[in-house]
Amino acid sequence: MSGLKNRYPKTVECKGEEIELIRLDSLETDAVKSFTDQLEDKDLLFLARDIREPKVVEAWSRKLETGDIITIAAMRQDEIVGITAVIQDQLSWSPHVGELRILVRPDARDLGLGRTLIQESFLMGLDLNLEKLTVRMLLSQDRAITVLEEMGFKTEAMFRDHVKDRSGKKFDLLIMTHDVAGVHSRMQAYGLDEAL
User: Fold this and answer.
1) Per-residue confidence (pLDDT) for residue 180, from 0 to 100
2) What pLDDT is stored for residue 122 in this prediction?
3) 20 CB contacts (<8 Å, ≥6 apart)?
4) Segments forming the whole domain that contains residue 140
5) H-helix or E-strand containing 12?
6) What is the pLDDT of residue 193?
7) Is the CB of residue 9 less than 8 Å from the CB of residue 20?
């Protein structure tokens, strides 16, 4: 967990643009509301809950305080252009598994920011001693799925007609996973874990 405290804020370069990554302590901010207001329904359907709803934002903020959710925001000037979160439920039967959530604003999707946020999430998983990361994606999010596959995520399950948008249209949902523990073991074997 100490790596998390020392890692942020930090600046990354995405196709020539400087993006600052900061750890969020609350989602109840104007910057977060502005970010979620710019996302369409289809950008949010893979999430278990609509993060534009005040009660959901309150619940997420409480989880930030307890450390059950770690959330990193990607800032361009004073605006959030992306968010990644790793959720860990210590009271479940799967405390070794983290759920990854990644959102990128439409105007920042060609910067490689999604890949950067996935890499940050992987580092968070290592810091939290997670053995596995899961991520939910709509089958229609083919670009995001391609990036996840390139980074070692594999499809574990698909649920047909699992989510429904406000108009009633149904979408298929994929569950993808990554073996964090296996990658970490290989990194240790090559002495690469010290580089992190």
Assistant:
1) 83
2) 86
3) 9, 10, 11, 12, 74, 75
4) 2-195
5) strand 10-14
6) 56
7) yes
- From the first residue on, what is the mean pLDDT of each consecutive set of 10 residues in the chain (196 residues)? 75 92 90 90 86 89 90 94 93 92 92 92 88 93 90 94 92 93 59 52
Q: Kindly report the CATH number assigned to the domain that includes residue 18.
A: 3.40.630.30
Spatial contact of 119 and 84, defined as CB atoms under 8 Å apart? no
Q: Alpha-carbon distance 131 to 94, whole Å?
A: 10
Q: Given this model, what pLDDT does residue 6 score? A: 79
Taking CA atoms, 72 is separated from 22, 83, 181, 191, in Å, by: 6, 6, 22, 27
* Burial class of residue 35 in the structure, from the number of CB atoms within 10 Å of its CB (0-12 exposed, 13-18 middle, 19+ buried): buried
Token code pair at residue 30: 């104007």
The pLDDT of residue 29 is 86
Amino acid at position 147, single letter? V
Global confidence as pTM = 0.86
The token duo for 11 is: 């600046």
Tokens 């790596």, residue located? 3
Structure tokens at 144: 């995001």
Q: Which residues of the chain form beta strands (DSSP E)?
A: 10-14, 17-23, 69-76, 79-88, 97-104, 132-138, 154-164, 170-178
Name the residue with tokens 């073991």.
185
Q: What is the DSSP track for 107-118?
A: GGTTTTHHHHHH
Number of structural domains, the chain? 1
